[in-house]
Amino acid sequence: MDTSPIFPKGQRAPARNFTGTVWVQPLIEADSAFNIPVGYVTFEPGARSHWHRHAGGQVLLALGGIGYYQERGKPIQILRKGDAVKCPPNVPHWHGASPTVEFRQVAITPNTATGRVTWLQPVSDKEYNSLDK
Amino acid sequence: MDTSPIFPKGQRAPARNFTGTVWVQPLIEADSAFNIPVGYVTFEPGARSHWHRHAGGQVLLALGGIGYYQERGKPIQILRKGDAVKCPPNVPHWHGASPTVEFRQVAITPNTATGRVTWLQPVSDKEYNSLDK
Asked: pTM for this one?
């Protein structure tokens, strides 16, 4: 059986929006006919996005590893291979890897007239470690 | 390494829209806030959709196996693990497995005001086998 990764890891994500090491591979670039970019993201252990929100919402498909996902005001949710998450429009949230295992996801993010993503503050260590509390 | 399938195979797809055996697992159901259903589809060898078109276009992500994809008036395109296809709105097309190897895909299909899919005629054996000609 072919156990090689499905998608290439791509390039390092911009450090200004992430904590730790994150890789992004665009799979589908938006255009005027299909304005829904799709990307593949690999979070190394401990890495996570900053808090952010999407004007058009977002879907995450967990392809492997162990991920963390949190919407503001809710507890961290653990994501495992095969999980699918629908994040509602304009709800602040973050996602990333667990502290010890990387996380691989596909992200589907509509590019609306009011934009695709608004970045907010970093996820603090206290927030990131709140699962154990 | 965990080599189990990422998503469950789901249920048999309706025979009226497919030739051969096809399995569909909904991953994301559309709602008023995120009206972009996402599904996982497994085509057994030789199986394929009928010709159809999407008012909002469609993205296919090839997760494994060997797939066929054809837009009307163009040759069949072979899809392998990691390939991503963007099918423009209203372009008649079909997709399925190769004759001897199954095909596993994620389909992202916006549910527009004018609908999600319009089914057309079956793919004939002559059309399906046109790759070898």
From this structure: 0.94
